[in-house]
Amino acid sequence: MAAAKFLGWDVNVYVKDMDTSSATYNTFVQVDYDTLGVSFTKADADVTTQIDAGWESHVPARRGATFTLAGRTMIDETTGDWNGGQAALKYLSNQISTDGLAEFKFVILAKVQLLFTGSCNVSQPFGGSGTEGSPFQTEVKMTGAPAWSVL
Known about the structure:
By secondary structure, the chain is mainly beta. It has one helix at 84-93, and strands spanning 11-16, 28-31, 35-46, 58-72, 102-108, 112-124, 135-150.
């Protein structure tokens, strides 16, 4: 079997729009981005006992993942509407409690799919300087276990 090599932009990212006033409510909208990062975490439970002869012993107690999506702020010049994916992330980023959770879908090379529930924080909805495009950045934190599948 040949291994598929792919670029970051070969991963399509979608979020389910939870804004009930949106035309795309409860459907997956694509999130445009330039860079995609992922950070995994793990917390261990110490299970060391006297019989371990002084050597530490542990079992994984928790795992987590946070994805960082960074790109350019995109607003329609005619209507002033935000890009659908960015609008959905901005909406979600302002919600509290379970209202702040949504489904995310990452599709790799149109062959592999990662589904998970998560929350997000839009850390940079706009900004920049006179010599660069206005940045848009969000962190998406997974809650619960992910589901991988082959399409």
